[in-house]
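Priority: medium. Attachment 1 of 2:
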């Protein structure tokens, strides 16, 4: 089935990033039942020789699935740490 996703990322000084997205649901035409919106932050710490450390955080709203889950899984948070070299 067709799916529509929209997203936006805004950066400040190529170091701080703000992100948001939406998964469009239009009746039963598009295929998402619960997940609708996401939000996140990113931080890029420059290192010598064009290297960097990147830390990212994202939240994914899960609608009724999150309501039915345990406390830990009710709010799906995603964290990542990467080193670019």
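Attachment 2 of 2:
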């Amino acid at each position: 089935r067709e799916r529509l996703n929209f997203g936006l990322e805004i950066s400040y000084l190529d170091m701080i990033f703000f992100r948001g997205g939406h998964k469009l649901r239009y009746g039963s035409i598009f295929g998402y039942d619960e997940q609708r919106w996401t939000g996140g932050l990113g931080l890029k710490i420059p290192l010598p020789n064009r290297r960097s450390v990147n830390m990212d955080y994202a939240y994914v709203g899960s609608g009724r699935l999150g309501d039915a889950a345990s406390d830990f899984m009710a709010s799906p948070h995603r964290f990542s740490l990467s080193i670019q070299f």
